[in-house]
Amino acid sequence: MNYVVSTKSNFRKPQAWTVNRPTNLRVQPKQLDVVTRRYEIEWLSADGVAETKTCVAPALPVFERAFSAFVQGALIQTDKGYVAIEDLRPGAMIATADGGLQPLLWIGSMTMFPNQHEMGLSACQMARITEGGYGHDNSCPDLMTGPSARILPGVMAVDSSSKLVNPSTLNDGRSVICVNVVSPIRVFHIAVANHGLVRANGVLAESYHPGKHPHMEMEPELYNHFDGLFPHLDSVDDFGPLNHQRND
Fold this sequence. Notes:
Elements: E1 36-44, E2 50-58, H1 61-64, E3 70-71, E4 75-78, E5 81-84, E6 93-96, E7 100-103, E8 106-112, E9 126-129, E10 143-145, E11 176-179, E12 185-191, E13 197-200, E14 203-206, H2 220-227
Antiparallel strand pairs: 1-2, 1-8, 3-12, 4-5, 6-7, 8-12, 9-10, 9-11, 13-14
């Protein structure tokens, strides 16, 4: 007696098939595998119009340095006197120590949190500059600076040979005090036509400049995100020369 054994090899193999893909299929951009942050930017367009935009971009140090020099409430000297940094708008005339009055071309802000480490972000490194040191204006409240602030350690040193330093490195528990953040806090940075020194509560601090070669710190895709944060310029290279040296 013959037996027929039923196995998979006895079944007819199905024919191969394909999916007809639409010819206008749009390829999605590659997603960045990094923690992101919300950044607020305002800038002066080529037509002299103040524009604003909210961006979501990587929360990397090279990005955050552009938004975290001054804490909300810092008083910036303008042609109309001191103005709180959160009240500045593109086009305002900023008093600089080395370039006279210059229009504010760009202002950026973001929010920092006390539990940033748990969120995969860098720590909040704030400093409070009190009256008496570093040219602080006694008529102003203490100056609170963010992680990317750079100031001149000498009151009258405004020449290009003076190196800018992070206030936290000057911590002495009296003139400069490191501060821990206990609640969300908004931080800012500003840019004018040339890298220079602005007065914040009387303290000489630098305007934003990305450094000599920012594109060397990131991949091309990240650089494109970074470049897009400065719509007042054709390219980040248009920030011009770094007019003051930094100690880091």
